[in-house]
Design a protein that fits this description.
The complex is a heterodimer.
Chain A: H1 2-17, H2 20-28, H3 38-53, E1 74-75, E2 78-86, E3 91-97, E4 105-110, H4 122-132, E5 142-147, E6 153-158, E7 163-164, H5 165-172, H6 176-195, E8 208-210, E9 216-218, H7 223-234, H8 238-241, H9 252-255, H10 262-278, H11 290-299, H12 312-318, H13 321-329, H14 341-353, H15 364-374, H16 415-423, H17 436-449, H18 455-471, H19 475-492, H20 498-514, H21 517-532, H22 541-555, H23 559-576, H24 582-597, H25 601-618, H26 626-641, H27 645-663, H28 668-683, H29 687-703, H30 710-725, H31 729-746, H32 751-767, H33 771-784, H34 791-804, H35 808-821, H36 828-846, H37 849-865, H38 872-887, H39 891-908, H40 913-930
Antiparallel strand pairs in A: 1-2, 2-3, 3-4, 4-6, 5-6, 7-8, 8-9
Chain B: H1 3-13, H2 17-23, H3 25-39, H4 50-63, H5 71-98, H6 118-136, H7 138-149, H8 154-161, H9 165-184
Helix pairs in contact in B: 1-2, 3-4, 3-5, 4-5, 5-6, 5-7, 6-7, 6-9, 7-9, 8-9
Classes of the chains: A mainly alpha, B mainly alpha.
C-alpha cells in the first residue's frame, strides 16, 4: 500500500508541474506499470485547480475552551457586557456589577498570559491591595481582582473612554504647550503613585488615555509587576517573563534586567515626550530587530529633538530648554536622569511658566568625556608581560616578575584631539554603537589629508592618536600610524625636534606592546643618547624611554642592566618632577622589579614599603586604577618574599580582584596574578582558597597566553602541589604530568621547575603505593642536583617516601638530614614545620615516642606561630602527637588534639581514608578518657 | 552546542515528545499558550503569531549560547511539531470532556459550549491522515504541519526547510489533495 502511495506522490509531483490542460494527455501517456493509479490521479487532479485557490486546511478550526468568556458570563460580582479589546495580556471586557449594589461599569481584564492559578497568592493579594489604594483622578482605579472558575485571574479596572495620547495629540494637531500640559498631567499622576511606592514599569502611549474632557488617565499602573509576581510562582518563564513585549519604551536598566525604579518611569515618559514633540522615535534603526533596538536603547544617543523636526517653527520652539529636558529624561544612567518624576514635572512646569529650567544641555566637552569614559574598560593591559609566579610548595621558590605596562590616560586627550572628535560626528546615522577605534581611524585619515596643519602639528596629532590607540589595545594600528608619521616628519624636521623625539618614544612604546624586542632595542639605542642630550624634550620622554629599556632588559634576563636603567629613570624623573609624581613612582616600581629579579629582597622591601602609600595617594586612593593594581601585586610579592606571606596574600588578593574587575576575569593579568596568589596561599596552607585561584588562573591563562604557555604549565604544577598537600595524589598526578610535558617542550629555563615537578610527582606515586619507583626518581634527582639549594626539599621528599614504605629508621635519618640542610631565610620556618612533622611521625612509627613527641609539638607550635591554616599534614601531626600522649597515658591531652583533627577532616574531606583513621583514634581516646 | 542538546533536537525531530518537552521547556509553555489562543473563538490573534514567538524564543535560546544559527531551522520545525502535539492533545481532551468528562464549572454558563464537535474532529482527522502521509512524503506532511497547526507563512516554511517557496506551494497543493481524499473516506 505504501509503495502505491510513494508512486502516487511522485506522479503527482510531476503532474502538478504541468499546465492543467496538459495533464490529461500526460495521464494517457503513462506507462503500463502505472495504469492502476490512473483513476485516482484523474480524480485528484480534477480538484487541483479548485484546491489551489481554496482555503482548505488554511486555518485551524475554532475549538471553544473553558477559559473563554462570552457576554452574560458572571465573573465574580461582575457580568460581562461586551469585549472591548485584546490587550497584550489577554481579553478586556466591559462589565457591570450584577448584584445591583453599585451601578458601575468596569473594564474587566483577564490575565490569560499568567497561566492558570488556583488562588491568588498572598503576595498577589497584597499587591492588589496596594494598587487598590491608588486613588487619583488621573489614574484608572483598580477596584477588584480575583480568579475565574476556569482559573484565569482577572482585574476589574475603572472603565475609561478615551483616546491614546499620541493619537489624541495627532488628531487635534495640538501645539507644543498643549502636549506638554498633557505630559505634565501624566508626570503628576505618576509622581503620586511613586509616593505610594508603586512604579508603573510599562508606560507607553497605549497606556495613557485622554478622555473627551482633556483629562489624562493612566492605565495598568503596577499591573506589570502583578503579572510578574504571579508568574514567579507558576512557571519558569520568570527569567524572561519580565521583559516587555515591545521594548521601545523600556529603560536601559529594564533591558539589562536590573531593578526597576521610579527613574525607569521617567525614562519611559521621556521617550513618550520625545515622540509627542517630534513625531519621530528617538532611536532610528537600520536593522529592524529587537536586538538592534535593545542595543540602541543601551548605547545610542538620541538625536537632539530640535534637530529631528522638519518644521523650522517647531525646531525653534524645542531648541534649548525643551531639548535639555527631553534629553535629560532619556539619559542612560539614573544618576544623570531626573531621579524622580517630581523633578521632571517640576522642570516641565517651569518651562510652561517661563521660568528657567534646571536641566543643562550637554557641553561638547561633556559629550567627549563621556564618550571616552565609556570606552575606558576597553583600555586594558597592552602588555609587556613577564613571568611572575611563586611556587610555594616549599620545593622551590622561583620568581620572575610581572610588568604590566598599560596606561589609561585616555582622558588626558588634549584640546586638539577634542576638536577632531567633535567634527567627526560620533553618533552617525545609524544611532548605533561607534567603535572608538573607528573614530580614531577617521581622525587619523582626516589629519593626514589635511593641508592646513603644520608638519609639527600633524606629527603631534598623529602621535597622540597612536598613543590612544595603544591604550585601546590597537597596537598594530598604532605602530603603523606612528612609524609612518615619524618617517614623514624626519624629512622636514630636525632630528632633535621635541615633537619628533616624543613621537619616537611613543614608537618605542608600540614596539614594546606589539612585542618586537629587536625593533625596540634598535629604536632605544638611537633614542636614549639623543634624549639624554636634549634638555628641552618633553620631561616625561626620557623616563618613559628608560622604562621601556628597563622592561626590555628584564625580559632578556639582563638584571643589572635593568637596575641601571631603572636607577637612571628614577634619577631623571626626580629632578624633573616632584618626588610623589606618578612618573617618579613608576620608575621606582621598576627599580623594585629589578631588585626582586636579582633576589635583593631587603632592598625591594624597603623601597616598596616607601612608595606604596605614595602610589595610593598619587592616584587619589582609587583602588581601581591600573597603576595601583599593578603596584599592589608587586608589593604583595615583595612582602611574601621577606616572609610576610599573609600580608602579601592580602595585597595580591586585592590586585586579583582589581584585575578581575578592570581587565576581565579571563585577562592576562588575572592569569598571572591569580597564579601568584595561589602560590602564596599554598604556603599559608589555605588549600581551598588556593584551589579557587588555580581554577581562575587556568581559565584566564587558557585564553591568553594559552594552554601551551609556561605560565599555564606552572599554574598546573602549582595546582598539583596543592592536590598533593590535600592528600589527593591521583588528581595531583594528572596535573604533574601535564605540567611536565609543557616544561619538556619549553626546554631552556624550565629545567629547575621540571625537576621539582618530578620530585613532587614521585611523592604522589609513593602515596599511591609505588614507593620503589618513587625512590628511584628521587635518587636520580639528588645525584644530579648541582648545589644544595633545593637539596633540603628533595631530601625531605625522599624521607617521606621511606616513611610511606614503612622504612622508618631510614626515614628518620633523612628528615634529620633535611632539617640540617634548610637554608636560613624568611621562609625557613615554613619548611621546618613540615619537615618536623614528618620527622615526628616517622619517629613515632619507629618506636621513639619521646623524640616523636618533641618534634611533633614543635611542628604544631611553628604552624601556629606562622598562622598556617589547618591542613592534612597538621591533622596528621595532631594524630601522631595524640598517639604519643596515649602511649604516655595522657588521654585528655590526646582527646583535644583528636577532636581538632577529626573536625578538620569532616570539614575538609570526609571521604579521605585519613578521616576514618582519625575518627577511629578519636573513639579510642574518648573511650580511654571515660574509663 | 553540547551533545545532549544536539541529541535532544534530533530525537525531537524524530517525534520523540519527551525530548520535545525536555529540550525547550520554556518555549513549550509559550507555544502552548499560543496554541490555545489560536483555538479560541476570539478575534484573530495578531499580537503573537507562531513565527514571532519562535523568533523570540529562538533569540533567547541562541543568546544563552546553547544553540547555533544552523540550529534555527531545526528549532522552527520543532516548534511546529510541538504546536501540533499541543493542539491534538487539546482537541482530544475537549472531545473527551464533551462526552461527559470532568466539569468543574461553577459560574460560567453552558451557553458557550457549542453543540457539535466539528473543530475537534477535524483536527484529529487531519492529524491521523497526516501521519499516514508522512510515511511516504515526509516533506509535504511537514509543510502541512507548519501551515495548518503552526500557521506559518510559505516563506517561513521555505526558509526552515531549505527549499524554494514554489516547492512549498507544490507540496501544499499535493498534500491537500491527498488529505482531502483521505478525509472524505
Amino acid at each position: 500500500m505504501s509503495e502505491d502511495s510513494a508512486r502516487l506522490s511522485e506522479l503527482l509531483d510531476t503532474a502538478l508541474e504541468l499546465a492543467a490542460a496538459d495533464r490529461e494527455r500526460w495521464i494517457e501517456s503513462l506507462p503500463q506499470e502505472h495504469s492502476d493509479l490512473k483513476p485516482r490521479l484523474r480524480a485528484l487532479l480534477a480538484r487541483a485547480a479548485s484546491i489551489e485557490t481554496s482555503d482548505f486546511l488554511g486555518t485551524l478550526p475554532k475549538v471553544e475552551s473553558d477559559a473563554d468568556a462570552a457576554a452574560g458570563d458572571e465573573i465574580g460580582p461582575y457580568r460581562l457586557i461586551r469585549e472591548i479589546g485584546t490587550g497584550g495580556m489577554g481579553a478586556v471586557w466591559l462589565a457591570e456589577r450584577h448584584d445591583g449594589a453599585l451601578k458601575r461599569n468596569v473594564a474587566l481584564k483577564f490575565l490569560l498570559a499568567a497561566g492558570p492559578h488556583q488562588t491568588l497568592s498572598q503576595r498577589l493579594q497584597r499587591e492588589r491591595d496596594i494598587l487598590a489604594e491608588l486613588t487619583h483622578p488621573n489614574i484608572a482605579r483598580l477596584y477588584d481582582a480575583g480568579i475565574s472558575a476556569a482559573g484565569v485571574p482577572w482585574l476589574a479596572l475603572e472603565y475609561i473612554e478615551g483616546e491614546h495620547i499620541d493619537r489624541y495629540c495627532r488628531e487635534r494637531q495640538l501645539d507644543v504647550r498643549a502636549r506638554l500640559a498633557l505630559v505634565l498631567q501624566v508626570a503628576n499622576a505618576a509622581a503620586y503613585a511613586h509616593s505610594k511606592l508603586v512604579v508603573h514599569r510599562d508606560l507607553k502611549p497605549t497606556n495613557i488615555l485622554v478622555s473627551a474632557d482633556g483629562q489624562i488617565h493612566l492605565l495598568d499602573f503596577g499591573i506589570a509587576k502583578l503579572l510578574e509576581e504571579g508568574r514567579a510562582v507558576e512557571t519558569k518563564l520568570t527569567q524572561v517573563g519580565g521583559r516587555a513585549l515591545t521594548p521601545e519604551y523600556a529603560s536601559p536598566e529594564q533591558i539589562l534586567g536590573q531593578p526597576v525604579t521610579t527613574a525607569s518611569d521617567v525614562y519611559s515618559l521621556g521617550v513618550i515626550l520625545y515622540e509627542l514633540l517630534t513625531e519621530t522615535r528617538p532611536y532610528r534603526l537600520k536593522r529592524d530587530s529587537r536586538g538592534a533596538l535593545e542595543d540602541a536603547i543601551l548605547e545610542a544617543e538620541p538625536p537632539i529633538p530640535s534637530a529631528s523636526v522638519e518644521s523650522a517653527q517647531r525646531a525653534r520652539a524645542l531648541r534649548g530648554d525643551l531639548d535639555a529636558i527631553v534629553l535629560k529624561a532619556l539619559k542612560k544612567t539614573t544618576d544623570e536622569r531626573y531621579r524622580t518624576m517630581d523633578a521632571f514635572a517640576d522642570d516641565v512646569s517651569r518651562y510652561l511658566d517661563g521660568r528657567p529650567v534646571l536641566a543643562q544641555p550637554d557641553s561638547t566637552w561633556y559629550r567627549l568625556r563621556k564618550f571616552v569614559r565609556r570606552n575606558r574598560l576597553a583600555v586594558g593591559a597592552a602588555a609587556a608581560i613577564f613571568l611572575a609566579v611563586v611556587i610555594g610548595a616549599g620545593v622551590s621558590i622561583w620568581q620572575a616578575r610581572v610588568a604590566i605596562a598599560e596606561r589609561a590616560r585616555a582622558e588626558e586627550t588634549n584640546q586638539l584631539m577634542a576638536s577632531v572628535f567633535i567634527d567627526a560626528d560620533p553618533y552617525g546615522e545609524a544611532g548605533g554603537k561607534v567603535a572608538a577605534v573607528d573614530l580614531l581611524d577617521q581622525a587619523a585619515r582626516r589629519i593626514v589629508a589635511s593641508k592646513t596643519t603644520s608638519p609639527e602639528q600633524r606629527l603631534e596629532l598623529l602621535t597622540l592618536l597612536a598613543f590612544t590607540l595603544n591604550n585601546f589595545q590597537e597596537v598594530e594600528r598604532a605602530e603603523k600610524i606612528v612609524s609612518a608619521a615619524v618617517a614623514e616628519a624626519e624629512k622636514v624636521l630636525p632630528e632633535r625636534h621635541r615633537s619628533l623625539l616624543h613621537a619616537r618614544v611613543v614608537l618605542a612604546l608600540t614596539h614594546r606592546y606589539v612585542g618586537e624586542p629587536s625593533r625596540l632595542e634598535a629604536e632605544l639605542e638611537k633614542l636614549l643618547p639623543m634624549l639624554r642630550e636634549s634638555p628641552d624634550a618633553k620631561p616625561e620622554d626620557l623616563p618613559s624611554a628608560l622604562e621601556s629599556a628597563a622592561t626590555m632588559a628584564l625580559g632578556q634576563g639582563r638584571n643589572e642592566d635593568a637596575e641601571r636603567f631603572a636607577r637612571e629613570g628614577v634619577d631623571v624623573a626626580s629632578r624633573r618632577f616632584a618626588s610623589d609624581h606618578p612618573v617618579v613612582l613608576t620608575q621606582q616600581w621598576m627599580l623594585v622589579q629589578s631588585f626582586m629579579q636579582q633576589r635583593k629582597s631587603d632592598e625591594a622591601y624597603a623601597l616598596a614599603s616607601d612608595i606604596m602609600p605614595k602610589t595610593l595617594a598619587a592616584y587619589a586612593g582609587n583602588l581601581r586604577d591600573p597603576h595601583v593594581i599593578e603596584a599592589r601585586e608587586l608589593h604583595g610579592r615583595v612582602l611574601a618574599r621577606v616572609g610576610r606571606i599573609s600580608e602579601g596574600a592580602d595585597e595580591l588578593a586585592a590586585a586579583v580582584q582589581g584585575a578581575r574587575e578592570l581587565f576581565g576575569p579571563t585577562s592576562v593579568a588575572v592569569c598571572y596574578f591569580a597564579s601568584n596568589l595561589a602560590g602564596q596561599r599554598l604556603q599559608l596552607r589555605q588549600l581551598q582558597a588556593a584551589r579557587e585561584n588555580i581554577k581562575e588562573s587556568l581559565a584566564a591563562c587558557a585564553v591568553a597566553p594559552g594552554r601551551e604557555s609556561t605560565v599555564y604549565a606552572i599554574t598546573q604544577h602549582l595546582g598539583a602541589s596543592i592536590e598533593l598537600a590535600a592528600r589527593k595524589p591521583q588528581a595531583a598526578l594528572q596535573d604533574f604530568d601535564a605540567a611536565i610535558a609543557v616544561y619538556v617542550r619549553a626546554g631552556k629555563g624550565m629545567e629547575g621547575r621540571m625537576r621539582d615537578a618530578q620530585a613532587e610527582r614521585a611523592l604522589a606515586l609513593a602515596m599511591m603505593g609505588d614507593t620503589a619507583g618513587a625512590r628511584r626518581v628521587l635518587d636520580e634527582l639528588l645525584a644530579a642536583q648541582p648545589d644544595d639549594k633545593e637539596r633540603a626539599e628533595y631530601t625531605h621528599i625522599r624521607g617521606t617516601i621511606e616513611h610511606l614504605a614503612k622504612r622508618y629508621p631510614e626515614a628518620v635519618a633523612l628528615q634529620e638530614q633535611a632539617l640540617s640542610q634548610i637554608k636560613e631565610g624568611p621562609t625557613a620556618d615554613h619548611a621546618r614545620a613540615r619537615f618536623l612533622a614528618l620527622s615526628g611521625l616517622s619517629r613515632l612509627e619507629a618506636g621513639d615516642v619521646d623524640a616523636a613527641e618533641t618534634d611533633l609539638q614543635r611542628a604544631l607550635d611553628l604552624a601556629s606561630t606562622l598562622r598556617l591554616q589547618p591542613d592534612p599534614l597538621r591533622a596528621e601531626a595532631q594524630v601522631g602527637l595524640a598517639r604519643a600522649h596515649l602511649k604516655h597515658s595522657r588521654p585528655s591531652h590526646a582527646l583535644q588534639l583528636l577532636k581538632d583533627a577529626d573536625q578538620f577532616w569532616r570539614n575538609f574531606d570526609p571521604e579521605n581514608p585519613a578521616a576514618r583513621e582519625t575518627g577511629k583514634w578519636h573513639e579510642v581516646a574518648r573511650n580511654t578518657v571515660d574509663l | 552546542m553540547d551533545t545532549d542538546l544536539r541529541q535532544l533536537i534530533e530525537r525531537a525531530q524524530a517525534g520523540d515528545s519527551s525530548a520535545l518537552d525536555q529540550l525547550f521547556a520554556e518555549t513549550y509553555e509559550d507555544l502552548r499558550r499560543l496554541a490555545r489562543a489560536r483555538l479560541r473563538a476570539a478575534p484573530p490573534v495578531t499580537v503573537l503569531d507562531t513565527i514571532a514567538l519562535v523568533n523570540e524564543s529562538w533569540m533567547r535560546l541562541s543568546q544563552s549560547g546553547r544553540l547555533r544559527p544552523q540550529d534555527r531551522a531545526h528549532f522552527i520545525r520543532y516548534a511546529a511539531r510541538a504546536m501540533r502535539s499541543v493542539i491534538v492533545d487539546y482537541a482530544r481532551r475537549r472531545l473527551a470532556e464533551r462526552r461527559g468528562g470532568d466539569r468543574a464549572r461553577i459560574e460560567l454558563t453552558t451557553s458557550i459550549v457549542s453543540d457539535t464537535p466539528a473543530g475537534e474532529n477535524e483536527i484529529l482527522s487531519v492529524h491521523d491522515a497526516l501521519e499516514q502521509l508522512g510515511a511516504t512524503d515526509a516533506r509535504a506532511a511537514e509543510v502541512v504541519q507548519m501551515r495548518y497547526f503552526a500557521g506559518m507563512s510559505e516563506s517561513d516554511i521555505a526558509t526552515a526547510l531549505g527549499v524554494t517557496e514554489r516547492t512549498v506551494r507544490r507540496d501544499w497543493t499535493k498534500a491537500r489533495l491527498l488529505l482531502a481524499e483521505a478525509l472524505e473516506k
